[in-house]
Fold Endonuclease V, putative.
Amino acid sequence: MPLSWADRARALKSEDGTAVASTSAAQPSALPAEPAPPAKALSSSTPMFPLPSDEENLEATRTKWLNIQRKMAPKVIVNDEHTPFQLPTHDPTFCRIASNADPSWSPPDYSRRSPSLPQLSIIAGIDISFVDGTDLAVASIAVFSFPEMKLLGTLMHHCVMQLPYICTFLAFREVPPIEALLDLLQATQPHLYPQLLFVDGNGYHHPRHCGVACHLGVVRGIPTIGVAKDLLAVKGLSREGIADALVAAAKVGTKIVPLVTAECPLWGHVALTGNSTKKPIYISPGHMISFGSAAALTWIVSKMRIPEPIRQADLLSRAYIKSKLKIDGADAIAAPGIEVTVGSAAVARK
């Protein structure tokens, strides 16, 4: 009997048991009988970026990461000319939002460029949740059909995060487990590998225009959109100024405002999406997508404040932490001596 997607993913999990898969009811139940290639799972003992050694302090590591970002930033593409699928330019809502968000936006001419490009039909959201007080993290992906927004499947991967968080260098902490998750999805269910990723974090809206969505898009060669819940402060942008701009925009019937400063003509957009009236989100292209298209696609898939692909990925990872790891943030604080075990890897909370 052919293995189901869930069974195949479990069979491919790493030796320390760090991969978990689940599917929705609509998910096809079987894969071809031939064995899938092994997935590249993230080992808790093998970091994918250099860790600070005894000889290197945190500042030296920060300098290394800074140089990597500066070399990567010129590779970031923030237009639709290289997008490997056809945007929904037949949808008047998409075109209206994209052109309103960025007056310089115009729909690509696919008849001239490449009429054989596939339509955008599979999108996904990526999120990482942490167990409070530990280095344990659960990365999750929720895959949807587009434009129907039907949940096709989910995949989760949990691991021990070894790298420190440093502001504006989030990618170096979060891209490795996300890459492991994408490798696992590609190995177990390649026809669900997304054409476009919504990433919980910034893209071009970053001091070096190389946020986590840009970083992930460049290293994977996949279009990405960054969606942040909080403002990443850069010179010329303030919460007060953004709040005033949203109030002014509402008076003329729009909820999407460009983020513009003297140093950068366009960082991205701030938007009151879905049912949100006070808490905006911050949208910026990650890679191989334009500002206007990023804003329009995010708006279309946001029935609530957070875009549905990211929202579902977040809910899945949090539910997994509570139900499978038998722990939540409150327990982590109340029981400081407990250990969280992931296969053979144990993380002691201090």
Remarks:
- The longest helix spans residues 170-188.
- The domain at 76-102+119-342 is CATH 3.30.2170.10 (archaeoglobus fulgidus dsm 4304 fold).
